[in-house]
Write a structure and sequence with these properties.
mainly alpha, about 50% helix
Length: about 60
């Protein structure tokens, strides 16, 4: 059956196609997950927010 035009997920203007991996201690992971839950954010969004804030702080100097 052919796919309907316009069906499915919409294309993003800025797709998130790059993947980053890192290792955390057990304590760091617990803090990270607690922060995400407390602020109702995904873990990916916590990292995006942290990176953005670091860059903004660096630009202020």
């Amino acid at each position: 059956m052919p796919r309907r035009e316009g069906s499915g997920r919409k294309k993003l203007d800025d797709p998130k196609s790059n993947k980053v991996s890192m290792r955390l201690s057990s304590e760091e992971l617990l803090q990270f997950e607690a922060y995400a839950e407390k602020h109702n954010l995904s873990k990916a969004n916590v990292l995006r927010k942290a990176v953005k804030e670091l860059f903004e702080r660096d630009e202020e100097k």
